[in-house]
Design a protein that fits this description.
With 524 residues, the chain is mostly helical. It has a domain of 133 residues. 63% of the residues lie in helices and 5% in strands. The protein contains 21 helices and seven strands. The strands form two sheets. Strands 4-3-5-7-6 form a five-stranded mixed beta sheet. Strands 1-2 form a two-stranded antiparallel sheet. The mean pLDDT is 85.
């Protein structure tokens, strides 16, 4: 029934390598379906060009969606990396933004394994956790998109920072190279993604409760924090010089506030975004229960830190401890349970011989089912996150055939603005102002909420075929619009007869091709 530890280790490593290969297939299934970055990335393309034009000195504003002046407050490290690859290697910048998030996401698998090995110990658990991390949708989906450029670099730096900080706490010395590396990497995380930085600092504080003596560990954490602040000072210092605290205060108010709904999302919803089979979520609940019964509270404590710090992106933030809890469920509960059944059958004299160990068979069955579910999800639902070529052609027409100062209202193509690639790419590909674009406005006080509300109200007015409500969503007299664009191919919304009649009374169709209609507003 059992095999040698060496054979189990070799088998587990083979399964890990195979599943990492399968994880790459899932990601490439999405990336190869489009010639440009997946879903979003238009804002980051513009900001990378802005940084290049400024000689890699932080500009005061981005040129995205002019004439609005959006502060250049996004952490710029990933833009600098993309710009350097573009200029040093001669790689097309659009393709850099398409592939760099994928590469960074795949590179994060190694530090995740090293971190899992430190937290879960030697044996099969770190391997199981790494396979789960590789396959879980929140661990790659929003990281490999064009807008995942900052997230993927931030996550990579964060994981390495946690690995080095854990080692520094275990080393027991007041200062070490590991502590220095943790501080530098925390600073690089801050230069990549603010939310991930806050979560990383929170998890480091949690580590202090479990390693190296609390008081000494907190002092080391303070040193790491100071070093991280110094490393990231060129970024936040320049933003403060240009704009003060306003952009950071504006951005901090766009993620909602902590409430009981966050706990409901954690325990009652599909936290792992599994589309067909919720194997991982079931294993997470089993593993969480097992850890609490054993009074092992590091990973449950990590989830608590996320609820306090990283709830804005709960699914993405949770994927690291979730994958480790899944490994606990497999190795401590599921596999021993089957082994107990097998032993009982053998004790009763019933034939129950297996050619391979259950420690290989059970996880293999779980992970292959999870892979099949994830692959099916990307094949059936991936198209909704791809900018259609017909939309890109329409934007090119807009750039060539409308006045440079023309402004557009873009009718919603999805229920959420973050799922609407037309919305983000329009200011870059059409080079025209969009009243509807939400991306980037989280750094402008009040603008993000207003634009998000306008987007949702427009969606609802088209859904209800309500011309009166539709008009209330449009810019007012002094801030009027010139065109309305509706992408019928991308959106499942259709113009109802009442809204269609209202549009035809005050507008003329100037472009109608491949399901895309552009209405020009009649002069008042």
């Amino acid at each position: 029934m059992t095999s040698s530890p060496r054979r189990e280790k070799q088998a587990a490593i083979l399964v890990l390598a195979f599943c990492i290969f399968l994880a790459a297939i899932i990601r490439l299934q999405l990336l190869l379906a489009t010639p440009r970055p997946l879903n979003d990335g238009g804002l980051f393309l513009a900001m990378t060009r802005d940084l290049q034009a400024a000689g890699y000195r932080l500009p005061e504003f981005t040129t995205y969606n002019l004439p609005d002046r959006i502060p250049y407050a996004y952490p710029p490290l990933s833009f600098a990396l993309a710009g350097a690859l573009n200029q040093l290697l001669g790689a097309d910048l659009l393709q850099v933004l398409r592939w760099l998030p994928f590469v960074l996401n795949m590179l994060s698998i190694l530090p995740f394994y090293l971190l899992a090995k430190r937290i879960l110990g030697d044996g099969r658990k770190p391997l199981y956790a790494t396979i789960a991390y590789s396959l879980l949708k929140p661990g790659y989906f929003w990281y490999i998109m064009g807008g995942g450029l900052t997230r993927s670099l931030g996550l990579l730096c964060s994981l390495w920072a946690l690995v080095f900080f854990w080692d520094a706490l275990r080393a027991g010395r007041w200062f070490s190279g590991r502590l220095l590396a943790a501080g530098v990497l925390l600073g690089l995380t801050a230069c990549s993604h603010i939310e991930i930085t806050l979560l990383t600092a929170g998890v480091m504080a949690l580590f202090c409760c479990f390693q190296g003596g609390f008081r000494r560990s907190v002092l080391r954490l303070a040193g790491v924090g100071v070093l991280g602040v110094l490393v990231s000072a060129p970024y936040w210092g320049q933003v403060l010089h240009f704009h003060g605290l306003a952009p950071f205060l504006a951005a901090s108010g766009t993620g909602g506030i902590f409430s009981e709904s966050i706990v409901i999302r954690l325990l009652a919803e599909n936290l792992m975004e599994e589309e067909y089979l919720t194997l991982f979520y079931v294993l997470f609940l089993i593993g969480l229960g097992g850890l609490l019964l054993q009074k092992k509270i590091l990973l449950p404590g990590w989830m608590l830190v996320i609820l306090l710090v990283g709830y804005r992106s709960l699914e993405r933030s949770s994927v690291i401890p979730l994958a480790m809890v899944v490994a606990v469920a497999l190795d401590d509960i599921l596999v021993p349970g089957f082994e107990s059944i097998l032993s009982k059958l053998q004790a009763e004299g019933k034939p129950a011989r297996l050619r391979y160990p259950l420690a290989l068979i059970v996880p293999f069955l779980v992970f292959t089912q999870a892979f099949g579910s994830a692959l099916l999800d990307t094949m059936q639902n991936g198209d909704q996150f791809i900018l259609p070529e017909t939309s890109a052609a329409a934007m090119q027409w807009v750039e060539q055939n409308t006045p440079p100062d023309a402004s557009f209202v873009l009718l919603p193509g999805a229920e959420g603005w973050f799922q609407d690639p037309v919305l983000e790419w329009f200011p870059v590909l059409a080079q025209r102002y969009s009243w509807s674009t939400v991306q980037g406005y989280e750094w402008v006080r009040g603008a993000f909420d207003a634009r998000e509300k306008q987007y949702l109200d427009l969606f609802e007015s088209v859904w209800q075929d309500d011309p009166q409500k539709f008009q209330l969503c449009l810019p007012r007299a002094g801030d009027s619009y010139d065109y309305i664009l509706f992408n019928f191919n991308f959106s499942y919304l259709k113009l109802g007869p009442r809204l269609d009649a209202w549009l035809n009374r005050g507008h003329s169709i100037v472009y109608q091709q491949d399901g895309i209609v552009i209405y020009a507003r009649h002069s008042p």
